Amino acid sequence: TKDPLPKYLDGSTPANERKKRVDAFQSGVGDVFLISLKAGGTGLNLIAADYVIHMAPWWNPAVEDQASDRAHRIGQQRPVTIYRLVAKGTIEEKIVNLHQHERDLADSLLEGTDMSGKISTDMLLQLISGD
After folding, report:
1. pLDDT tens per residue, range 38-91
2. Contact yes or no for 7/40 (Cβ under 8 A)
3. 67 three-state secondary structure
4. Is the pLDDT score of 118 beyond 80?
5. How far apart are CA 120 and CA 49, in angstroms?
6. Going from the N-terminus, what domains does the chain have, and what CATH number goes with each?
7. CA-to-CA distance for 65 and 71, rounded, in angstroms?
């Protein structure tokens, strides 16, 4: 039987209840599973998910990537669509811009083109302050 109410998981969810909620979602009992980023970042296999929606970015983009990867596990039979909801002109937008710069920097280092000297303390402060 489908449960119309969303399941949720956060850092205060006891381990035994956490397992019950994950198992219920995986077996198709509910269609929506709300998980705090840090609580859902590690140790979960959520191959029943078709969509991942990030509501607030984390300072470290790897945390978001790891949370998204909960749905991209062995056994996933369907495509997974990932959305990131970000309001224009907010600190979240600045964090996402910083994430992109970090990814570009990492890519350039892996490709052998050095961008590491292209970000300065002033540039980082500008991204954060929005000036």
Report:
1. 776 567 888 899 999 998 888 888 888 888 888 888 888 889 999 999 999 999
2. no
3. helix
4. no
5. 40
6. 1-85 (3.40.50.300), 88-131 (no CATH)
7. 11
